[in-house]
Amino acid sequence: MIVARLENGVLRVIDRLRETVRLADGLDKKQRLSIEAQWRALACLRRFGQRLRDLDSRDVFAVGTNTLRAADNASEFLSQGENALGHPIDIISGDEEARLIYLGVAHSLPMDDQRRLVVDIGGGSTELIIGHQMEALQVNSFFMGCVSISKRFFADGKISAKAMASAETLAKQELEPLKKRYDSGQWDVALGASGTVKAAARIAFENGWCEEEGVVSRDALKRIKKALTDAGRLDSLELKGMSDSRKPVLPGGVAILRAVFSVLKVDTMRVAAGALREGLLHDLVGRIQHIDVRDRSVQALASRCAVDEQQAGRVEKTAIQLLGEMAGAWNLQDDELANMLGWAARLHECGMMVAYNQYHRHGEYIILNANLPGFTQQKKQLLAVLVRSHRRKFPMTEFNVLPERWGTQAPRLAMLLRLAVTLNRGRVDVELPPMEVKGGKNSITLHLPDEWLDLHPLTKADLLSEADFLSAIGYRLVVKQG
After folding, report:
1. 287: how many CB neighbours lie within 10 A of its CB?
2. Strand 135-142 vs strand 126-132: parallel, antiparallel, or unpaired?
3. Is the pTM for the entire model greater than 0.85?
């Protein structure tokens, strides 16, 4: 955990806490987190929660990575984890993790014109990124990490040459399909952002295998591998610069790192100062300063899907207007909810790229499967559900996949989007009439001028149909004239 203060546009770290939990070590063969691993993680989150207790949740960005992406019981753990931390916890995709890692690394480096290869070997996944200045150009996440590989090949504590060779071969097989995208001809400098690279560099320097601190070479990795296999067992392993906490996962991490050096033709790799946590901070600062990468992601997807921008803009304007009227009564004051409603309005017709018939369902699928930098998995799900539910029968069961914290808010956002779409059925740039909107616990009252409804009989009919759709889920839509 990192706590930082924004001073004159610059982040200054004021607190840093680190605990080794190794959540990936708790995944069983059925991809379920063990009770013991959950207890370790929850105890850590409670301690971190004490430090974060008085912070506004809008200023806290907590994420889970590969292990929670893989665990079948992740949602059960997250519910407890959020209570322990006192703040929401989101899960990010492998590509999003890679983007954030690069962002953290880039902010720790001087601005130059070099193309960078960044490698991060985590507990359950390995991320590769090629970037230039502040932009990640190529990102990929691989389902292998120092914990998972160590657990698979060195679980009995033995470190044989055969096991090391098998571990390296597996890692090479994972990397080989993307070899051309990441080989040495695509970048100028290689950087390592993980504990594995830092540990390898420290061991190499303190044992005299690298003259420069913070650098690991191909030859140094060969010597580290020899030291591991010569020891034969973890409990016999003694290396200068190796911490006790790193020892159990060092063989797996070294195997992956050697595979990266071999497949991508890396000779030397420098340790980077920043990584995922720093990337999260800088991404959060961007949002505070209204530089949100998610805006670009939504715009790019809308463009790829040839969305009618003018119609999307009309619906967005009306949806935000309705939200302003209803926010207090429906507990929708959070700025992030306004963002989600606006983005859903801009993408509500993206499914038409596939076909008009059932386009709301196509839109849901597109969003769930698109690469949307900046969006956590939960926020992508919310966006997809809003698009799915903007027309026809109201699909309450679709909202069950969302975190409990949006249990009431998400359906209400969908209702506002549905009304905005209905009121803009004409698809023309004509100002909507003055209207009053009031919200009750389970009701919306929409007050429109008599003459406007008389001139728009199709909209009037659509509003009556919408009232029937909402009544099926226990909400009343009342349209008043006068």
Report:
1. 18
2. antiparallel
3. yes
CA angle, residues 386, 392, 394, in degrees to nearest 5: 55
Do 239 and 379 lie in a common domain?
A: no
Same domain, 179 and 251: yes
- CB-based burial label for 241 (10 Å; 0-12, 13-18, 19+): middle
Average pLDDT over residues 4-10: 88
H or E segment to which residue 480 belongs? strand 476-481
Residues of the domain holding 311: 292-431
- 10-16 and 115-121 strand pairing: unpaired
| Tens-digit pLDDT profile for residues 135-187 | 999 999 999 999 999 999 999 999 999 999 999 999 999 999 999 999 889 99
Q: What is the number of structural domains in the chain?
A: 3
Assess whether pLDDT exceeds 90 at residue 68: yes
Residues 85 and 98 in one domain: no
Rounded Cα gap, residues 40 and 150, in angstroms:
20
User: Are residues 321 and 262 part of one domain?
Assistant: no
Under 8 Å CB-to-CB from 147, ≥6 apart: which residues? 22, 24, 25, 123, 124, 249, 252
User: Does residue 72 sit in the same domain as residue 168?
Assistant: no
Final residue before a domain boundary, out of 274, 301, 327: 274
Dihedrals φ, ψ of 425, to 5°? -60, -30
Q: Are 166 and 199 in contact (CB under 8 A)?
A: no
Q: Is 456 part of a structural domain of the chain?
A: no
**Across 45-103, where does the E strand assignment appear?**
62-64, 89-91
432-478: pLDDT as tens digits: 888 999 999 999 999 998 888 888 889 999 999 999 999 999 999 99
